[in-house]
Protein backbone atom coordinates (compact mmCIF):
# COMPACT_ATOMS: atom_id res chain seq x y z
CA UNK A 1 0.00 0.00 0.00
CA UNK A 2 1.58 3.27 -1.08
CA UNK A 3 1.56 5.93 1.60
CA UNK A 4 2.31 9.63 1.71
CA UNK A 5 4.13 9.38 5.03
CA UNK A 6 6.17 6.53 6.47
CA UNK A 7 4.28 4.01 8.52
CA UNK A 8 4.79 4.80 12.21
CA UNK A 9 3.97 2.62 15.15
CA UNK A 10 4.79 -0.55 16.96
CA UNK A 11 3.91 -4.21 16.79
CA UNK A 12 4.48 -7.01 19.27
CA UNK A 13 3.89 -10.73 19.02
CA UNK A 14 3.87 -13.06 22.00
CA UNK A 15 3.92 -16.82 21.65
CA UNK A 16 1.62 -18.41 24.25
CA UNK A 17 1.68 -22.12 23.52
CA UNK A 18 -0.96 -22.75 20.87
CA UNK A 19 -1.84 -19.05 20.51
CA UNK A 20 0.09 -16.15 19.03
CA UNK A 21 -1.05 -12.85 20.52
CA UNK A 22 -0.28 -9.95 18.16
CA UNK A 23 -0.75 -6.31 19.17
CA UNK A 24 -0.15 -3.28 17.04
CA UNK A 25 -0.62 0.46 17.05
CA UNK A 26 0.34 2.30 13.87
CA UNK A 27 -0.68 5.08 11.52
CA UNK A 28 0.10 6.56 8.14
CA UNK A 29 -1.39 8.95 5.60
CA UNK A 30 -2.50 7.69 2.19
CA UNK A 31 -3.68 9.55 -0.89
CA UNK A 32 -7.10 8.42 -2.10
CA UNK A 33 -9.28 9.33 -5.05
CA UNK A 34 -12.75 10.71 -4.26
CA UNK A 35 -15.54 8.48 -5.58
CA UNK A 36 -17.68 11.51 -6.47
CA UNK A 37 -15.42 14.18 -7.98
CA UNK A 38 -12.29 12.10 -8.74
CA UNK A 39 -9.99 14.57 -7.02
CA UNK A 40 -7.24 13.27 -4.78
CA UNK A 41 -7.26 13.81 -1.03
CA UNK A 42 -5.19 12.67 1.93
CA UNK A 43 -6.65 10.31 4.52
CA UNK A 44 -5.12 9.28 7.84
CA UNK A 45 -5.26 5.57 8.53
CA UNK A 46 -4.76 4.66 12.18
CA UNK A 47 -5.09 1.30 13.87
CA UNK A 48 -4.84 0.15 17.46
CA UNK A 49 -5.64 -3.54 17.49
CA UNK A 50 -4.81 -6.92 18.90
CA UNK A 51 -5.48 -10.35 17.50
CA UNK A 52 -5.19 -13.91 18.73
CA UNK A 53 -3.96 -16.34 16.09
CA UNK A 54 -4.45 -20.07 16.63
CA UNK A 55 -1.32 -22.11 15.90
CA UNK A 56 -2.96 -25.25 14.51
CA UNK A 57 -4.01 -26.47 11.09
CA UNK A 58 -7.71 -26.21 11.99
CA UNK A 59 -9.65 -23.94 14.29
CA UNK A 60 -9.55 -24.44 18.05
CA UNK A 61 -11.68 -27.06 19.75
CA UNK A 62 -13.64 -25.95 22.83
CA UNK A 63 -11.78 -28.37 25.16
CA UNK A 64 -8.42 -26.98 23.94
CA UNK A 65 -9.54 -23.44 24.65
CA UNK A 66 -10.83 -24.23 28.13
CA UNK A 67 -7.28 -25.02 29.20
CA UNK A 68 -6.03 -21.76 27.66
CA UNK A 69 -5.86 -18.41 29.44
CA UNK A 70 -7.87 -17.03 26.48
CA UNK A 71 -10.89 -19.32 26.89
CA UNK A 72 -13.25 -16.33 26.90
CA UNK A 73 -11.91 -15.27 23.48
CA UNK A 74 -13.06 -18.28 21.43
CA UNK A 75 -14.91 -16.05 18.96
CA UNK A 76 -11.78 -13.94 18.51
CA UNK A 77 -9.74 -16.90 17.24
CA UNK A 78 -10.67 -16.69 13.59
CA UNK A 79 -7.15 -16.79 12.11
CA UNK A 80 -5.08 -19.96 12.03
CA UNK A 81 -1.39 -20.28 11.37
CA UNK A 82 0.63 -23.43 10.72
CA UNK A 83 2.73 -23.96 13.86
CA UNK A 84 5.72 -24.85 11.66
CA UNK A 85 5.16 -21.82 9.43
CA UNK A 86 6.13 -18.23 10.00
CA UNK A 87 4.24 -15.07 10.90
CA UNK A 88 4.65 -12.18 8.45
CA UNK A 89 4.25 -8.92 10.43
CA UNK A 90 4.35 -6.77 7.29
CA UNK A 91 1.39 -8.64 5.81
CA UNK A 92 -0.48 -8.45 9.13
CA UNK A 93 -0.02 -4.66 9.28
CA UNK A 94 -1.14 -4.36 5.64
CA UNK A 95 -4.29 -6.35 6.39
CA UNK A 96 -5.08 -4.26 9.48
CA UNK A 97 -4.62 -0.97 7.58
CA UNK A 98 -6.68 -2.27 4.66
CA UNK A 99 -9.55 -2.82 7.08
CA UNK A 100 -9.31 0.87 8.03
CA UNK A 101 -9.78 2.07 4.43
CA UNK A 102 -13.14 3.79 3.98
CA UNK A 103 -15.64 1.92 1.82
CA UNK A 104 -16.90 5.15 0.30
CA UNK A 105 -14.08 7.55 -0.43
CA UNK A 106 -15.25 11.16 -0.19
CA UNK A 107 -12.92 14.13 -0.15
CA UNK A 108 -15.09 15.94 2.38
CA UNK A 109 -18.43 17.58 3.12
CA UNK A 110 -17.75 20.30 0.55
CA UNK A 111 -17.14 17.81 -2.30
CA UNK A 112 -18.30 19.44 -5.56
CA UNK A 113 -19.58 16.13 -6.90
CA UNK A 114 -19.25 14.96 -10.50
CA UNK A 115 -18.06 17.48 -13.05
CA UNK A 116 -21.05 19.18 -14.63
CA UNK A 117 -21.23 19.05 -18.37
CA UNK A 118 -21.41 22.49 -19.94
CA UNK A 119 -24.14 22.92 -22.55
CA UNK A 120 -22.78 23.65 -26.02
CA UNK A 121 -23.31 27.03 -27.66
CA UNK A 122 -25.66 25.49 -30.20
CA UNK A 123 -28.12 23.34 -28.30
CA UNK A 124 -29.98 22.39 -31.48
CA UNK A 125 -26.97 20.66 -33.03
CA UNK A 126 -26.95 16.91 -32.97
CA UNK A 127 -23.90 15.79 -31.05
CA UNK A 128 -21.99 12.64 -31.87
CA UNK A 129 -22.58 9.82 -29.45
CA UNK A 130 -20.38 10.00 -26.37
CA UNK A 131 -19.41 13.69 -26.51
CA UNK A 132 -21.35 14.53 -23.34
CA UNK A 133 -19.80 11.75 -21.31
CA UNK A 134 -19.14 12.20 -17.66
CA UNK A 135 -15.33 12.37 -17.48
CA UNK A 136 -15.32 9.39 -15.11
CA UNK A 137 -16.54 7.20 -17.99
CA UNK A 138 -13.87 8.38 -20.45
CA UNK A 139 -11.60 5.37 -19.90
CA UNK A 140 -14.45 2.95 -20.52
CA UNK A 141 -15.50 4.87 -23.63
CA UNK A 142 -11.96 4.57 -25.01
CA UNK A 143 -12.19 0.78 -24.68
CA UNK A 144 -15.39 0.60 -26.72
CA UNK A 145 -14.27 3.07 -29.43
CA UNK A 146 -12.59 1.70 -32.56
Number of strands: 4
Spatial sequence of strands, sheet with the most strands: 1-2-3-4
N/C terminus separation: 35 Å
Q: Helicity level, as a percent range?
A: 10-25%
Strand share of the residues?
A: 25-35%
Radius of gyration: 24 Å
* H/E element order: EEEHEHH
Low-pLDDT runs of 5+ residues are none
The biggest sheet, with number of strands, parallel, antiparallel or mixed sense and barrel status, is: 4 strands, mixed
Count of DSSP H/I helices: 3
Derived from helix and strand composition plus strand pairing, the structural class reads alpha+beta
**Dominant shape:** elongated
Mean pLDDT, as a whole number?
A: 80
Please supply descriptive tags for the structure shown above.
four-stranded mixed beta sheet; elongated; 146 residues; alpha+beta; 4 strands
Amino acid sequence: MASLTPLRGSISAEHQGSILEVKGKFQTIVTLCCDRCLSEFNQTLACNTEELIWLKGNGPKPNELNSSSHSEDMDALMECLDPLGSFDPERWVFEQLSLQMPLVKRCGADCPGPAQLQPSAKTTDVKPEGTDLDPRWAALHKLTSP
